[in-house]
Amino acid sequence: MAERLVGKLAPDFTMETVSGDGKEFGKVSLSDYRGKWLVFFFYPLDFTFVCPTEITALSDAADQFTALDTEILGVSIDSVHSHKAWINASKDANGLGQLNFPLASDITKKVASDYGVLIEEEGIALRGLFIIDPEGELKYQVVNHNDVGRSVEETLRVLQALQSGGLCPMNWKPGDKNL
């Protein structure tokens, strides 16, 4: 039976990363985001077709997330070297170009498993997106079939609803009253 994650402390992680400009390798842990909100998302593989639409859309909206005191971290089971090559490849060659957030490598697949998005028989992750609050509590998760991309606008709306501090009815939008 699947374990519930929402409302609990987010599973801890430490992974290798490549910077959004594709120049530097590093490491990241969940504790690095204490005191900030985190949009943490999984995608199946580098150099695929739906993934760059999501990753570049989130990168294009990074200023909106920053304004909400929120960091973004993308992760797949690929190596940091694959991530670097993808960032540095031209968009004409199915590359990403520079990003406004790092990409992490879950090459062991442990983090995808801990977050419940690993497709074990394929060895890749589903499209899972998680919002983690400044204290490390997992507040939101959405998991899509790998054929369907996610919505930046919905992610921003849910983040703002969570940050509003109140009860938000169906179709709540920033500026609406809480219940």
UniProtKB/TrEMBL annotation:
Active site location: 51
Cross-referenced SUPFAM superfamilies: Thioredoxin-like (SSF52833)
GO terms (BP aspect): cell redox homeostasis; cellular response to stress; hydrogen peroxide catabolic process; response to oxidative stress
Any one Gene Ontology molecular-function term assigned to this protein's record: thioredoxin peroxidase activity
Pfam families: AhpC-TSA
This protein's UniProt keywords: Antioxidant, Disulfide bond, Oxidoreductase, Peroxidase, Redox-active center
Thioredoxin domain ranges (all copies): 4-164
GO cellular component, one term: cytosol
Family: Belongs to the peroxiredoxin family. AhpC/Prx1 subfamily.
Protein name according to UniProt: Peroxiredoxin
Organism: Paenibacillus rhizophilus
